[in-house]
């Protein structure tokens, strides 16, 4: 199981992949996904973090 959240852009991201401040500002909804569902979320989360910095 992997904790994930939907950000303000509607993208699902892994919890813990972005700084706390960014998480608090962008989190709309939390979801616990099965491991198979969460595959592929991490690379996009890292890119978003880099783009917003």
Automatic annotation (TrEMBL):
Keywords: Auxin signaling pathway, Nucleus, Repressor, Transcription, Transcription regulation
Record's subcellular location: Nucleus
Keyword Iron: no
Domain PB1: 1-35
SUPFAM superfamilies for the chain: CAD & PB1 domains
GO cellular component: nucleus
Transcription regulation found in the keyword field: yes
Major location (coarse): nucleus
GO BP terms: auxin-activated signaling pathway; regulation of DNA-templated transcription
One Pfam match: AUX_IAA
Membership in a protein family: Belongs to the Aux/IAA family.
PANTHER family: AUXIN-INDUCED PROTEIN, AUXIN-RESPONSIVE PROTEIN IAA17
Subunit structure, interactors included: Homodimers and heterodimers.
Purpose of the protein: Aux/IAA proteins are short-lived transcriptional factors that function as repressors of early auxin response genes at low auxin concentrations. Repression is thought to result from the interaction with auxin response factors (ARFs), proteins that bind to the auxin-responsive promoter element (AuxRE). Formation of heterodimers with ARF proteins may alter their ability to modulate early auxin response genes expression.
Identification of the protein by name: Auxin-induced protein
Species of the source: Glycine max
């Amino acid at each position: 199981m992997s904790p994930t959240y939907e950000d303000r852009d509607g993208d699902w991201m892994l919890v813990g992949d972005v700084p706390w401040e960014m998480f608090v500002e962008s989190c709309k909804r939390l979801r616990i996904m099965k491991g198979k569902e969460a595959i592929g979320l991490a690379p996009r989360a890292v890119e978003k973090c880099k783009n917003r910095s």
